[in-house]
Amino acid sequence: MNKQSNCTGLLIYFNKDYSKDIDSLYILIKSLCKVSSSINKIYGMYSQSDKFTRTKKFNEKNLKELLEMAKKGTLDQISLEEKYSDIDLPIGINIEFGKRSYVPKIKAYKSHNLQIDLITKKSSRLFENYLNLLKKKITDLDFQYGIASTANNYLKLHEELNASIYGFFDPKNPDAMFIKTEKEKRKEKELIFYQNLDEYDKYIRRAYWANFLNPTHVKKIGGIEKIKKECPVFLVEELPGGNIYIQLTEKIEDFGTNKYYKKLKILDNFLKPIKHPDCPDPIFTSTNSSKQEQKAPSTTSTLSAEK
Hints:
The structure is a single chain. By secondary structure, the protein is α+β, with helices and mostly antiparallel strands. The protein has one domain (7-306). The protein is built from ten helices and twelve strands. The strands form two sheets. It has a ten-stranded antiparallel β-sheet, with helices on both faces. Strands 6-7 form a two-stranded antiparallel ribbon.
């Protein structure tokens, strides 16, 4: 495995509003936990806020307590983690639900009916198991759009999936936590556009290693047969309901090479019919240079500050 590509993650949007169906939300969370029995922490995010509940041990009692809060509208996100210390977070799963609305305090949209984002630093086999589980969920729910990607550290992937930039953390200068390079500033423009795009039933962000597309996307590209014949990727897989799954290369570990980014750019051009006309040009070069790796922030320090 490429030493720098040690975090894999996915983000999937559904139209289903789980705030109106807490029983189904419970079943979904339990199915995610079955993939990895090592989930040991759980907490929630308060509605219309950037505040979190206290992190508790993951068990049936604490899960049902948070679900009861969600039922009352107090929470619009539940997070699951495998966590052993501030710097050891092998798995993180966020499940957002409810109506999507803009929160001025954090300058971001929160919730998109149902949004699942998941990051793991564990084996690629575990990631594939999560990927296959959510392929099945696409058949059960009103699916919108999904992506899977990878990065050299947890924070970078968290930024990409959640369309936000935190900047490097300098322990010698804690008051200047959110310093951004010029490249990060350009990337931020791209991510902010994604953050404000609420039409994923019609448009996509850009090309990623894995791309889940709905029937509207498929039709705008030219149909499933055209995609099968012309899409420049390793795998095109039909999913029930007219949805499709497009995978750039055989293994997600292929990430990080110049060859990988050339392929990604070609795929992005193929998917142009379903990209928003105002979408900024994506950056298809590695963010994993050795210089940046040395300056990469402590995952925990920044994410803790975010909470």
